[in-house]
Structures are given as structure tokens and as C-alpha cells.
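Weekly sync notes, structure subgroup
Attendees: PM, AL, DS (notes)

Item 1: joint prediction request from the bench team. They want all two components modeled as one assembly rather than separately. Inputs as received:
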Amino acid sequence: MPSDAVPSETPAETPREKRLHPLTLVFSTGAVARQMVFPAIVGGLSAGQGDVGRIVSVGVAVLALPALLAAVAKFWFFRYRLAGADLVLRSGLLSRKHRVIPLARVQNVEVRQGALQRLFRVAELRVETAGGSGQAEAVLSVLAAAEARGLRAEVAARRRAALPAAPSSETAPGAPEDGAAPSEIPTRSYAPPLVKLRTTDVLLAGATANEGGVIAAALAGGLQLADDLRLPWLERLGEPFGWLERAVGPGSAPLLALAVALGVVFLFVGWLFSIAGAVVRYHGYTLAREGGELRKRYGLLSVREGSVPLERVQALRVEESLLRRAVGLVTVKIETAGGAPGEGGGRGGAEAFVPIAHRGDLPRLVRGIFDDLDFDRISLRPVDPRSRRRAVRRYAVLVGTPALVFAAMALRAGEPGWLLALLPVLPLPWLLARWEYAHRGYALERGYVVARAGVLNRVTWIIPDVRLQTAHVTETPFQRRHGLASLVVDTAAGGKQAVVIDLGTARARALLEEVVARLHAARRARAPRRGVA
Amino acid sequence: MTTPAGAPPPPPDGELAPSRLDPRVVRVWRLGSAISTAAVTLAAALACALAEASLLWALLVLALGVAEGVLHPRAAYRAWSYTVGEEEVRLRRGVWWRRESVVPLSRIQHVDTQQGPVERALGLATLVLFTAGSVGARLAIPGLAAARAEALRDRLAALGGREDAV
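Output from the run, pasted for the record:
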């Protein structure tokens, strides 16, 4: 197996480098001009007003000139060529860039033509790989239209040649296993849908979504009740806070009260909106597994239907907020490549988001997506106990700072008695640290990596071995002091990634090797089945 | 067997020694630090003048910038190492915030080499690996000799562009 297989080309065979079409200059200066229109208008309007007008006009010119020069430079120094099985781009004057895109990696080739471009018979060619940076990896703007189309055909042809075993995987971004033959896609179907939400479920989803709103609702209700009952002791309760008024400044109490009240009102209204929004959006939510796909259907006013091929699922994220944990509910995000789930768009970021599900239904849902994973059998291992020490310090600062401020205010107002109110707060850092530690864990199941963390919002990641993209061990200076490190398991899913926080350094490094080894093993296990059309 | 000039020799069975960056990269970093220190000091001096505070604050900023420029590039150079193995590329870097990253060759989508004007003057380049990951979408190895960077770029692009050789 050649490890230094650099494609060699004799000088006579080296494909000629090409440049962009000269009309690029027109289009890019047009783009600059469009950006400058608004400031230019402002400049023009205020031109008659002496100094200000002059400054704005000069400002526009100053900004426009480098942009124009950059556009010219970009055209002048941009070169591209198809060399063997790669697309090679060179660009830049001051900062030179040389990019090699293996055609086997290309997911999508597109020719775009705006109306004006059509008039001048030029077009833009965009080449996308599964690269995580979100933009097309090669943008050739603009080429002669015929050249663009010819190039697209050529890229597609060479790509097919480079991947003999790949059946139409041009529309599967982020499926690193391009070439998965249809025979290996699991074809099981689950008769009753994996998830079917009733209206009460959807209402609960909306009600528990915004925790601030729930607290506010509770507070608002409580305050109203107190007001109705006019309990005398409640009023006496407010009296001691007169010192607060003395400490902060006279007349501030009504302002503070108003601020708090307004905050409560906003949160409450937000909560109501969240419930209504959930109903409109997720009414009748159904998620079913059919063959190799997950089909979902939801919505009240506008019904959405979509499907996610199982091959594109990068990971599962189970989220349990504190509130939802208390009532036995979870949220499941089915992470696909590109944008984060729940957002439209992104390259392949389909909306794959189960807004609410009962904890008891979770194992079945997980098995519906990952055939061989038994969610209930997963036993998580704890992270390093030294992380508790680190957490205590962190929470001590977090809790201690407002406590100190409070104490300072009390002392300044001459009410040392209030310091006693801080007593129950003292054990808090230790309790919070224990709590946080108890909620952290990880597991290396057969074929999957599981990571869990978070207290207020507990997140459990389930990542198939084969979906690992890159892996990292990171150490902050604080972690280093305690001999700890974090393991980051990177996938093609957008947004935050799975992190196992606060492992012992040696353990973190060992796990790093292990997840990478599992990736290699998983890919090798798949390979024999590949290529069977 | 000919290997392209500047390319790392194929690793012997098992043992893979990490490589260091080209020592000249320290100069690039020092220059960058000098420029940003100058800019920040200027801004601080302006702020001091406007706020009518003592210029000693700006001097403090200058001192800190100089200290960073003297100490940090060398430390960063010592912390940096990379290994191009049979199946993956490893990077180790960071003085305060340390990171070790593993990029399986099969995950590399495409490869760039980049040269700023200073790098070009010194004959250095930065190799950038792109993957489909998010955290690891873009991983850069700075301060490589230009020829070595190019050879690595072409080799990794060739290896990444194939299916897994099994």
C-alpha cells in the first residue's frame, strides 16, 4: 500500500491553470458598490452640510478603495485547474493560499447564474465537500457559462471515476461512508411509530420549555394569591428589606420592585407564548421508522413532513432539563451533518428534533435509530473524583461573589444580623459540586460512545464509533493543576460537540486512542460489504 | 525509492516520532506580537490621553506586550509538535490551554497551504486540514518549511481522497 503516492505528472501533462472570467471584475466591483450604496447616500445627503458631509464622503472613499483593490487582486491572482483526481485552487497576493480538493470528497457541484450573469453568459461554480466550515469549499465566480458547465460535468465524471463503489451519494452530505451499498442499510420497520405526541404532551413541552417562565408563572401566581389574601405577616416580611433601600439609596425600593415585577411579567408572557408556539408547531408530532429512514410529521397550521435517512444520523443528543427530569420527560435531538437540528437549513441539517418524549419510551426510540443499542443497559462510568475539588472552587466563587456583595451591603447599612441569612448558602458550593459530579459520566458501549454532563440541563450524547470525525484532549490551566483533562468527541453534527469533562489526564489520553481505534475498526468492519452493488 | 524532497520519510514499523515546527516560526510569531503590541499600546495611550489618566497605564500595557512577545513565542514553539502517521495526523500545541488532536487520514476533506507575506519571506507555510467535524473543522499546522508543507499537502490530499484501503 503506497504511502507516498503523490500523483506524478510530467511537465508536459500538467493541466494548464486557468483564471476567472474577466467579467469577474465587473461583478465584484458591483458587489462592492452595492455595499457602499447606503453610506454613499448618507454621504451625498449630508454633503451640503459642511464638515459632517465631507467626513462621510471621505470615509466612503476610504472604505471603498481597499475593497475595490481586493476585488481586483482576487481576480488577478486566482487560478484553478483539474489535476488528476483533484481540484486545485491558488489565490492571494499578500496571503497566498493553495487548496487541494480530492474529487472523491466532493458532495455537491452547482452552477449558479443570476439574471445579470445570464445576460453576459457567465456563471458561478460552487463545489462543496462535507467540510465543516459551512461554506462551499470552492467558489469560482465567475466563469464563462460554458466553461462552468463543462467543469461541473468534468468534476462529476472524475468524481465517479474516483469512487467506483458509490451509488448516488451526491445528496448525502456528512455521510462519511459515501459508498454505503443499499444492501447494508438496515431495512427494519417499526410498526407503531417511535414517537406519537398527544396534545397534552405538546402542551407540557411548551410549558416546560422555558424554565424562567415557569418560575415567573409560579411567582406571579403566588404574589397574586398573597395580595388577595392580604396576609399581614407578608407585609411584615417586607419591612426588614427597608435596609436594602437604605443601602442602595433612598427611593430605590420602588424602582427595584418595579424592575422585578416587569421582569416577572415579561417571563410570564414569554411562557404563554412558548406554550402556544409549541402547540402550533408540534401538534400531532409523529416519528416513525420506515426501512432505512426516519419519517416525521408535525404541525397545526402548516403541516411539515420530512424524512431523515438513518445513514445521515451522526449522533443522538438526549436533553433533560431539571424541570423535565422532574416530570419524567426528555427531548431528543437527532444530529445530522451540517446545521444543528431544530434550525432549518444548514447543509443537510434537517429538522430532526423530538420536542418531548416520555423517559420510559426512550429505550424504544433509541433502538429505533440505533438497532443494537439498549439504552437502559448503558452503565456510565464516573469522571475523575478530583473534578469535585475543582468544582467546589468554581462554585465557591460563583456563590461567594454575590454573597460577599450582599454581606457588604448589609454591613454598610448597619444590619449585621442579616449576615445570618448567608449561613444556609455556605454548604452550597460543596453540594453543587457533588451534584454536578453525580450527573457526569461516560461509557464505551459496543459500537457507541456515550457521554453525559450537565445539571440544569443534562445532556447525554450517543455517538456511533463510525461517526467520529476528529478527537481531542484539552487541558485548561485550571484542569492541569488538578491533573485533569477533557475529551472532545467531534462529529459532523453542527454546534456543540460531546465532551467528557474532567477525566484524569492519563485516562483522557487512553480514551483518545481508544475512540480513534474504534473508528478504524468500525470502518474496517464495514468495508467488506462495501462495493457490493 | 524516492520521496519528494522535504516530505517526512515513511515511518518505520510502530515507532512514530513527533516532529517539531521550523524554528523560524518563532520570528513570525514575534513579529506578529510586536505589531499587535504596538497597536494596543497606541490605543491605550490614546485612551489615557482622552481620559486624562497617567500615561503609566500605557507603559504597563507596553511592558506586558513586550513580555508576552519575548516569552510566549518560544514557549509556544516548544509546545508544538505534530506527527503524520499511517492512519492519522496528530497535533499537540498550547502553552496555557493545551490541546492534542487526532485527525484520521480518512476524515480529511481537503488540504490547504497558506503563506502570509512574512511566512513567505522566511520560506515557511501553514498546512491546514479540513474535516467534516465542527470542533475539528479546520486544523492548522503553522511554521512548516514551504517544501515540506507542500509535500504534506499533496500526500494527505491523495491519501484522504481514496476510500479506506483495506
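Discussion: Chain A touches chain B through 63 residues (CB under 8 Å).
Action: AL to compare against the crosslinking data before next sync.
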